[in-house]
Amino acid sequence: MTFEQNYFQLLSLPVAFDVDASALQAAYLTLQTQFHPDRFVNATSQEQRLSVQFIAHLNEAKQCLEDDVKRGYYLLELLHETVPEERTIDDMEFLMAQMELREQGEALVVQGDADALRSFQQSIQAQYEELRSHLSSQLADALWNDAAVSLAKLQFFQKLSNEVSQANKVN
Amino acid sequence: MALLQISEPGQSLDPHQRKRVVGIDLGTTHSLVATFKDGSAQTLGDSHGDHILPSVVRYTAEGAVVGRSARDHLVDDPLNTIASAKRLLGVAKDDLHGLNDALSYAFVDDARTNSLMLNTEFGVISPVNVSCEILSHLAQRGAEHLGGELDGAVITVPAYFDDAQRQATKDAARLANVSVLRLLNEPTAAAIAYGLDQGDDELIAVYDLGGGTFDVSILHLQKGVFQVKATGGDSALGGDDFDVRLAELFLTKMDKRSDALSLEQQRELMRVARLVKEALSDAMDVPVDLSDMFGHEFQVTRAEFNGCIETLVNDTLTACGQVFQDAGVRVSDVDNVIMVGGSTRVPYVLERVAELFGQAPYCELDPDKVVALGAAIQADILAGNRRDDSLLLLDVTPLSLGLETMGGLMEPVIRRNTPIPAAQAQEFTTYKDGQTAMAIHVFQGERDLIDDCRSLGRFELRGIPPMVAGAARILVTFQIDADGLLEVSAREELTGVESAIQVKPSYGLSDDDMMAMLQDSFVHAEDDKDARQLRELDVEAKQLHEMVSIALFEDGELLNDAETRVLQGALDGLKAAIEVQQVSELQKATSALSSESELLAARRMNKAIHKALAGEHVDQLSAE
Asked: Which residues of A touch B382 (CB under 8 A)?
């Protein structure tokens, strides 16, 4: 089965970076309620298969749209049609800053100072949010190359913040 | 296999055509069957009025005996009396050492296979056989109560069960000739039983401490849709472990060592420990009488017992913390807590859980029955027996699924807690010049090294044209169905070479084993196999013909003239085959119509999706 709509259309959302989370959830539930395989227990095996395929597609769409980085790349591809193959950054200053942040985070986790760690995480979060709003306006203004760079940076921040909370969990 | 009846689209079921469906809680220590009758879910009893069936099967030369009468022989015939078989379901021999030492059966020592088999007086038995006996017994009970052969059952499994264990459960059902409507996670069943599906926007935690397993799940309920946010737990921790700890306390008090005990003494010790544990739920101290076999009598207080189990209970609370993290919620966000499983009767457990959540948990329903009751409700919904089908269950996969890559690393393709059904594709490439085959080895687990994960199966993609290393583009697709079972396929993108497997646990039963067992179970069926096959094909063909005719009548405009002609041809072909009544003709014509109607079905689906988004009501896809 081919699905003609893009993820935004599928979930009745405007094609834009900023997504209304509750509208997304509402559309998701509407579709799940009608097309989940549980609704096709008495149908032909063909319809059952279609339902499984569609819901798998729907789940993928939701996961993509709920993740800032995934949604960013998806949107870039959708609007600009090409995404830079290599998602690298040659902004040395940014990379150095990232490395420092990473070392700082690791040190805090090892020290086990919960308060310091929390404020560190908050500061990462704040920088992430700032970058995110940059990205949003770059995409809205069709500044594709700038947006691609911001996306790569956003991915760095996302990874960093996941790693810190993961390391914190283990300790 | 029993075929389900199909009503015409847009028509509700005749009340007399209610499907005979049940919910089965296939538990580690005990099992139950329940059905939805007279407006409520109720568990079903045997002729003595006993609802709970001990999950114990005894094999003698004459055959298998299930339940209480089997349990009575746990002590005097331990090698032929199999209890807690669920712990062995879908488990490889290599994994055995991780299990409770109390499982002292005569395991078959055959180096050629990693499948777990037991020697009994009846012969060699797989844990799947044991579960099959229990399922048959309960299905039979259900059929007697409902007045006819069952149309299907919802069977519950611990949320923590991995793919191999789910597959083994389905194998057991297939062997027992029970048609599985859905494998349902136990905690989710409990939430349904408590009617919490009426809420509008709630976060529910289910704490399920059974005899042999511990599960904790966070469910999110929103407008009638249940979503499992995250699940966790321990598939080898339960109330049986409380018994073990208490038995250790007894031994300390009697100044005895466990390795000096006979098998009979061990079983007696466990029996008394269990009774004392249960008595301590009501009393603050309980006399222990071990005078017959040990010559000792003494007292045990609840405080002593609490001390014994404290670390076990701590472990369950730690697991809760992990699940909160996975679900991205805080303890204080939880609106309701549900207690499931007989071990939650232990006051200390209730106390600690209430303390963790800062609220009194739900525990009004019998914690032993609650899972079966929920399964019965879900079975009723899935069978289409009720008009208000507002309740829908969305599930997630409990463990990450992935592939082995160079260096013995696990590359996750579908991550833990991804909503299912799910499909995920990832591209891989060759690492040597001229490589023409690629081994696809599928694993499950959260660790980075495949040695720490469980192997689910392997297959090979052959016929890749020779290219330089890294030039081939192999797209590997993982698909998980609504029961959480996995199918993996691989395709070389440049040439279209394809290969696929339905992942069967490499240490479970092979398809050949399954076929042999199925053959065995059919031996005493008098039916002529061919006649049976023809009958099933005939039903299938007529149903397909009718469904496609209706689809074409309703949505014929979705096809152009040429497409319609092709489909009409396939319809006529099947009609002719139905008149001829020959197995091969029917098979051919059915599969021809099935593939020719694919296009129409897909377009109808797309049309329905558009309508749904436009807020229109879609007749043929709702239950009204």
From this structure: 38, 41
